[in-house]
Amino acid sequence: MKLLSQLLANVDVLEISGNTSVEVESINFFSNIKAPNSLFVSAKNIEHDGFDSISEAIQNGAKVVVYEDDAVRSLLDGLGNDVGNQSNAAITFVKVKNGSKALGIIANNFFDNPSEAFKLIGVTGTNGKTTIATSLYFVFKSLGHKVALISTVENKINDEVFKTTHTTPTPVNLASVLAKAKDAGVEYVFIECSSHGIEEERIAGLRFAGGIFTNFTQDHLNFHGTMENYARSKKKFFDNLSAGAFALSNADDSKGEYMLQNTKAKKYFYGIEHKAHFVASEIHSSFQGTDFKIGDKAVHSKLIGKFNVHNLLAIYGASHLLGVSANEIINIIQDIQPPSGRLEIFKSKTGVFGIVDFAHSPDALEKVITTLSEIKNTNNRIITVVGCGGGGDKTKRPQMGEIVTRLSDYAVFTSDNPRKEDPEEIIKQIVVGIPVDNEAGTHETLPDIANPSKKYECVTDRKEAIVKAVSLAKAGDIVLVAGKGHENYQVFADKTIDYSDQEEVKKALGL
Questions:
Q1: Which member of 190, 205, 355, 504 lies 3.0 to 4.6 Å from 104 by CB, making a disulfide possible if both were Cys?
Q2: Hey, what's the torsion of the CAs at 138, 343, 504, 497, to 10 degrees?
Q3: What is the largest CA-CA distance in the chain?
Q4: What would the mean pLDDT of 99-106 be, rounded to a whole number?
Q5: pLDDT tens-digit profile of 309-318?
Q6: Least confident stretch, 71-80, 161-170, 338-347, 441-450
Q7: Are strands 246-250 and 210-213 parallel, antiparallel or unpaired?
Q8: For strand 147-150 and strand 155-157, is the pairing parallel, antiparallel, or unpaired?
Q9: DSSP 303
Q10: Which domains does the chain have, with CATH numbers?
Q11: What is the pLDDT of residues 412-440, one digit of tens each?
C-alpha cells in the first residue's frame, strides 16, 4: 500500500483534484476488475480507455483516476456528485501529460523502483532479441551471478520460470516481476524491449544500465504505420538512456548509427563489415556450429550463421562492458545453446534435417534460408514451410512469398496464427509475390519437386503442410519450418489450440 503522493513522484502531473494522501492498494488499467482502493489509469495507448471504463473502474473500487484527456473529465463532471455508488468528491482525479508513461512510472513507484537494485540491460531490434537476451542470461548465470530474464519465450528469475504473454510485459506486470527479482537478490536482468513495448511506454520508469540494438528490417507496420515511425520507436529507447549507461549498436545495420544519435549513454559498436569496437572475422559455419575470430581470439559457437555471429558479438560486447574478461566470455560462448525454436535442428534416421525457426519477417526469413544454403551440400535441397500471422503487417506477405520461392528449392505455404483472418486469404496474399515463372501448385495438383518451374504448393493445415514437406525430402535435404518457433499454440478466429512446430516436425521425421 502506498500514498498517492508517493506514487506520483517523477510523474508529469498537470492537475490534481482531490486528496493526495489517499492510500492505494493496487494499480489497474482494466476497468472490469474489482479492485478496492485502487488507482485506475486511462490513456490513449491503453485499450480500456475512456469515460465508460473510468465509470466502471470507479464502481469496481477505484479511489484514484489518472487521465490525460480533458473530454474524459468533462464527462465525469457532468455526472454531478455520484459515479456508480460512490461520491465523485471521494475520488481523486489526476490529469497527466502522458497516461501510458504515467502508468509505467506509477507502477515502478508502487513496487519501490526495483530496477535501481540491479543492472538492467535492454535489447531491442527487429530480430535477434531473444537469442541475445537469453544468451546473456546464460553467460552471467554461468559466472555464478543471480540473474533474471524477461523474453518472448519465458520469464526467469534464477531457475524459476514464469509464463509470458508479451515480449515486453505490461507496466504493472513488469514492475511486479522486477520486484520479485529484487527480492531474490538478482544482480543482472536482461529484457527484450519490443517496439510495441517502447511506444506504449511499458518500460517507462525503469533505470537501464545498458541497451543493445540488433538490426532494423520491415515488421509491425500494422502497428507503426511507416518504417520511419517504427525506427523512431526503437530509437526512443536509446534516447532515454542515462549518461551512466552504455549503448551498444550494430555497425553493419543501416540504422546502427541513427539509433545512438541522441543518446546520453556511452556509445559502442559491434560488426563484421564496418569499423567497430567489437569485430568478428574468418567466419565458417556448418551444422555443427560456427567458428570465427573476435580480434585475434578464436571462438567456437553452437549457433549457426553470420546473423548469429552478429548476435554473439553483441553478447560478447555487452558482457565485456559489464566487466567480464574476454577469456571468460569466449569459454562460455561455446556452451550457449540456441533458444527454443531458433534454428533448432532435428535429424531423421534417414538423414533428413528438420529445422524449426521463429523467422516471421522477410529479412529474418532471408537470413535463415541463406545461412542454410551456405552450409548444405550442393546436391541437397531446402524445402520451406511457412505462413504469415493474421492481424499483422500485410505488406510483408508477398515479400515473404518471393523470398521463399527464390531462395528455397521448394515451398509449402500454409497457415500460421490466422487469428480473425481467413487463412486461405492470407496464403493468397503470400502467393501474390511469387514471380510468374515460379507459379505452380494448387491443393488439387501437387507439383513435381524435380521440376524447377514448379516451386510451391499451398496446404492450409499446418500439420499437413509439415508432413507433406517431409514426404518430399530425401537424405541430406533440409525441411525448414518457419514462423512460429517456440510457440506452443495456434490462434484462430474462434479458438486457440495446443500446437507445436517442434513436436510436429519430430513426428513427421519419425522421432
A1: 205
A2: 60
A3: 79
A4: 93
A5: 999 999 999 9
A6: 441-450
A7: parallel
A8: antiparallel
A9: S
A10: 2-108 (3.40.1390.10), 112-333 (3.40.1190.10), 344-509 (3.90.190.20)
A11: 999 999 999 999 999 999 998 887 655 44
